[in-house]
Amino acid sequence: MHQTIRASRAERAVIVLLRIYAAILLTALIPAVMPLVWMEEIHRGLGMGELPADRIVQYLTRSQSGLYAVQGALFLFISLNVRRLLPVVKCLAVLKILFGIGMLALDIVVGMPLLWTLGEGPVIIFLGCLLLGLTNRAAKNQGSAGE
Question: Which site from 1, 35, 94, 126 is most exposed, i.e. has the minimal number of CB atoms within 10 Å?
């Protein structure tokens, strides 16, 4: 007989956080395909002057946005089976923390606007730490359930 095992509170929190992450990351589809004129207006609006017209700038902005969207789709997929993929979620959480540290350093070194700097690296680090903590709690609950 098949027995359905209810997700623990920690597992449900991991699922919710992964889906929030996914929703945020999937919005990167917009800049991946938005008209260049919009990118130029956003760039100026952030006080960063004129967006360089080099092809490499368009390539990097669009490919990075596409990569973020792919990551969002992956997070959504993982959220559909957190119990089985918990080790993957833990790995992603650690990678998010490291990525957040790298982005904070990069933002500081290249002189990104303060709000950008505060809203990127520290937020990624915080969410990575939150995901890691919830993942550890979910794993501990799985262990105590005898799974």
Answer: 1
